[in-house]
Amino acid sequence: MHSENPNTRPYLIVVPHWPDGTMAFKFGYAIQRSIPVDRNQMTMVQFTPERIFRFEAVLSPDIFTHQLRTKMREIGCGRQVILVDLLAATTLTVGSPAG
């Protein structure tokens, strides 16, 4: 997974507590719709105990946060989602822990 765009950065999305059942599908779709890449360009790095996805994109953390919060409100599922910028070694947390 490598992009030719020099502004593309590698990211991880970490979800400590993935929802169950139908909400799991809705939540996964909300995450996919919040990032500017096709789902085929995301790689699941870890399935359990927390879900971790890796992708590369030109991404605005502010836009990601706004879009993800909006999508989580639409589906009625508030979970903690951690966005990790691998080049800057910074994290952004959206939502609150749920267990």
Q: How is the secondary structure organized here?
A:
Layout: E1 9-15, H1 21-34, E2 43-46, E3 51-57, H2 61-75, E4 81-85, E5 90-94
Helix pairs in contact: 1-2
Give a written overview of the molecule.
The chain has 99 residues and is an alpha+beta fold. It has a single domain, classed as Alpha-Beta Plaits, CATH 3.30.70. Helix content is 29%, strand content 28%. The chain contains 2 helices and 5 strands. It has a 5-stranded antiparallel β-sheet, with helices on one face. A hairpin with a 4-residue loop joins strand 4 and strand 5. Helix 1 packs antiparallel against helix 2. The radius of gyration is 13 Å and the shape is globular.
Strand content: 25-35%
What gap, in angstroms, lies between the N and C termini?
32 Å
Q: Helical proportion?
A: 25-40%
Quick one: overall form?
globular
Which architecture per CATH? 2-Layer Sandwich
Listing every helix as H and every strand as E from the N terminus to the C terminus, the arrangement reads EHEEHEE
Give the rounded overall mean pLDDT. Answer: 88
**Count of DSSP-assigned helices:** 2
